Amino acid sequence: MIKAIQMQPSIAVIGSACLALGMGLPAVALSPKPVFDRVDRFSTNLPTATGADEADIYYPVSSPNASVDSLPVVLLLQGALVDKADYTNFASQVAQYGFAVIVPNHIRTATDPVTGQAFTGFFPEQQQVNEVLAYATAANTNTASPLANLLNPNKLGLIGHSLGGAVGLSAIQDICFPFLCTGRFSRPPELMAGVFYGSTFRDPRFGGMIPPIENDGIPVALIAGDRDGVVGNFAAVEETYEQIQDSPKALVTIQGANHYGITNEDSLRDPVRPTLDQDIATETIARWSGLFLRASLLNDSGALDYIYNQGDGLDENVSVTSEVATVPEPTSLVGILAFGVLGTARRLKRRQ
C-alpha cells in the first residue's frame, strides 16, 4: 500500500463557467484539487491472450468527505520500454480524482513497420483495452478482490504515454493499426475517453504523415511538454490535435516539460532537459488528465469548466487549445451544466 500524495492546489474554489459568462445561473464549485486524499495500491497478474501481465492497480480510499463508489476504470498504456514502476507518482495522483488506474507491464515482440526489425520489451498494444475491461468486470464481482463492488466497468478511459498514446488513439478509432495492434481488435462501447501525453499519430510507413483521426465523438485530449525532444517536431503534436475529427478535444501544452515529465524521474532518452521541476510537471499532467477524465466520463461540471474555460488562465505552466462539442438546445439547467456549453460549439485558444 502507498500513502496518498498530497496535492497542492494552485487556486481557491471559484465560480462556474456559466456564472463567469454572465448567464445568471447558479454557481458550480470548481477546484482543481483531487477528490480523494488517500490512494491504495496492489499488484496482480492480469490475464491476457498469451499469458498474463504484471500490473499495478491504484484506487482511492474513502475519506470523511468522499466515499469510494462506482469508480470508472482507467487503463494507463505505458511508453515504449518504460516500466510500470516509473508511473507510480502519476498514477497515484490520477487515482485521487476518483478512478481505478490499472498500469500493466505488457511485454511483446514488436516489428518496426518500416525496417522490419523486431524488438522485445515493454510495448503496449490495443488488445490490452479489452483485456483490462474483462479483468475489471470480473474483479468487481470477485469478493476476494480489493476492487470488489468498487468499480463501474461500464465507464473506461485511456491514458497513454508516447507509444501508448498512439495505441490509445488507434483503439478509439476502432482500427487495428500495424505495430500498435496484433490479431483483431473491436472497440468496446465502454471506452468513453482518452488523454495522451507526448504522443502523435504519425504513420512511419508514409513518411510520418498524420491521417485524419476518426474518434467518433469520443473526447480526446493531448498533453505535451514544449521541450519534448522525442516527438521530433512539436508541430506533429499540434497536427495530431488538428486531425482529431470530432470535438470535444483539447491540446494542453506544458511549458518547460520534456517527454518524461509524466514519469517519476527524468530520462536521458530525451536529449532535451526540462526546465520545469519534475514533481510540478507530473502533478500538472496528472491534474489535467484527471479533470479531463472527470469531465468526459462523469460529466463533472467543475471539471468541464476547468478544462474548457478557466483552467489555462489559472495554471501558469500551461497553454490550452480546446474545442467543445455542438450540443442540441438544452431543455434543462442540468443539460447546460453537464456539457458546460450553451448549445453551440466554441473554440477556445488561450496562450499565456
Automatic annotation (TrEMBL):
Is Hydrolase among this UniProt entry's keywords? yes
Ice-binding protein C-terminal domain sequence ranges: 326-350
Q: Which NCBIfam families match?
A: PEP_CTERM
| UniProt source species | Trichocoleus desertorum GB2-A4
Q: Which PROSITE patterns match?
A: PROKAR_LIPOPROTEIN
Q: Which residues form the signal peptide?
A: none
Which terms does the record give in the GO molecular function aspect?
hydrolase activity
Q: What is the lineage of its organism?
A: Bacteria, Bacillati, Cyanobacteriota, Cyanophyceae, Leptolyngbyales
Annotated PET hydrolase/cutinase-like domain residues: 47-171
**What protein am I looking at?**
Alpha/beta hydrolase
The keyword Hydrolase is assigned to this record: yes
